[in-house]
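Dock iron/sulfur cluster; give full complex structure.
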Amino acid sequence: MMEGIRRYFWRALFVVIMAAGAWATYLRFWGGLGAATNLSDQFPWGIWIGFDVLCGVGLAAGGFTLAATVHIFNIKSFRPVVRPAILTAFLGYLLVVVALLFDLGHPYRIWHPIIMWNPRSVMFEVGWCVTLYTTVLFLEFLPVVLERLKWHTALKVMKAATLPIIIAGVILSTLHQSSLGSLFLIMPNRLHPLWWTPLLPVLFFISAVATGLAMTIFESWHSSKAFGRQLEYGLVCRMTRVLAVITAIYLTLRFLDLSHRGALSTLNQPGFERWMFGLEIVLMAVPMLMFFREKTRQHPLAVYLGVVMWLLGFVTNRMNVSVTGLERSSGVHYFPKWSEIAVTLAIIAAGFAIFRLAAHYLPVFEEEHEEEATTPAGSGRIPTLEAARVPGD
Amino acid sequence: MARALLFDSTLCIGCRECERACSEGKHLPYDEKIAQEEQTSARKLTAIRTHGERFSRKLCMHCLDPACASVCPVAALEKTAAGPVIYHPERCMGCRYCMVSCVFGVPTYEWNSRLPYVRKCDGCADRVAGNEPTRCAEACPTGATLFGDRDELIAEAKKRLAEKPDEYYPRIYGIEEAGGTSVLVLSAVPFDQIGYPVNIEKVALPQYTWAALKHVPDVVVMGTVLLGGIHWLTHRKEEVARKEGRS
Ligand code: SF4
Ligand code: SF4
Ligand code: SF4
């Protein structure tokens, strides 16, 4: 009974969001950006760039983090989460492209950077990386589809090309995850000193790696709810510990940089920047402290809450860099119009829906059978997802 | 020979002839109502702004190394040798990065158009190429906006500062702002009092991004070597173990 009501609630919500998104889409493409957004000459970038692109690309970082962990560093225990992470990444990037189509004044020219070059432009580099990386993700995900179709020859060919594809993917990700931070280097005196730093690319990269892990934990939680599958719990514990360590590195670097540039003194100045900064730091520091404690790591609900908090912290950071930190110098206050929010929500909802469909019809949460055959018996067999269900789930 | 404009705000009487000439030259509508707008926009490429008794002029500064041109992913903005920074609308994707990056807040957008373009003063590139003055300079009745060679205009500005030290604030705006611009400004009062941003880096802004961007090839080369190496190391143990297991 409860289950049925819950399901109807989510379906109804989905339909409402999609309808609002469709209306907003009509407004956007019929009336132009002016009709559908609160953007202006003073504030030309809003949440379609700040959230859909900056956060979207970051939240899709699980693909390269885990591909590297498993295929390059050969840490086998993470293998069960590689596929869902790659699927999320692939979908994430496709949706980022969709979001860009909304934001660009001339969406049908999205391919222009391919032939019209300006190698001095960070955006040019990001454009190229994202294009290539989306292709790489497609190739990384292809084996899953081939497996479903039982095209074994094609599968073999793909397997042979795995290593170069993975390496290319990791490098492309490193480049554009950091370049999203470099986008803001050009505004040293307009982006608030709490966020402008020459280290922006480095900070963006580190937080993207952490977000990749956090997203993977988040996903495995939800897929366990939806499909009755659960990750081996020891694996989740290990991932939260790594997340805590990376967050510690990130926050240390962040504060060293702030104090080095003398930006901490701006915390004495009144204004909403310091509150948004505080929010961002708290949302990252609290889960870090939680995950450093053995006790918390053993507690599934605490892990889930911690991870959600971390993800919110990440989103707050990207929004601060792209919106909060730029408001003061722009002289205007920007808050998204309903239609901007509707498009963003619709894109997220579509992402969830497609992920569910793909996970339902494709062997995303299953081990590669061929791989197992080549693994010598007894040498660290990978715990299957089914076998590792937490009791009482 | 890089061309430039010198705007001497002490000579500006706020007649807005420059605005009118500019709009006429660019086939933009111009009437009383538009004249009242003190902001540049898609339909007004230059604006006279009132600050009590004084006037300032807003237009593209035609930076020597413009941020807008450096950030544009498709090179739709270009700094020409003659001075003006021009726009190639047929390349533009409408990403608005140029607007975000310009420290003077110059490029504007056709927000209500279905296929919007960036709009900004193009320094009358069509005329400047033939060494004709810009429309605004030609129309100015008091000589507040002067057109000429950048070095000569700097010399002229220095001369004015030296000759009438009481009438001028002792600096020339545009010599070092954002690494130097092709629009120079003189004022009787500190520049922020007549609406020019003063908290601006003295170096060309593109070098901030270049500091990060120049490492891209390193990341590619070192990344490949590093990742390949790690892969070899981490998988070698397995190989060895497998061989030993067999023999
Ligand atoms: S003032 Fe702005 S728009 Fe004009 S050249 Fe400089 S950066 Fe470009
Ligand atoms: S809006 Fe057009 S001109 Fe401006 S940076 Fe984007 S592509 Fe270039
Ligand atoms: S230089 Fe030409 S385009 Fe620019 S403000 Fe003057 S008249 Fe207008």
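Observed: Chain A has 16 helices and no strands.
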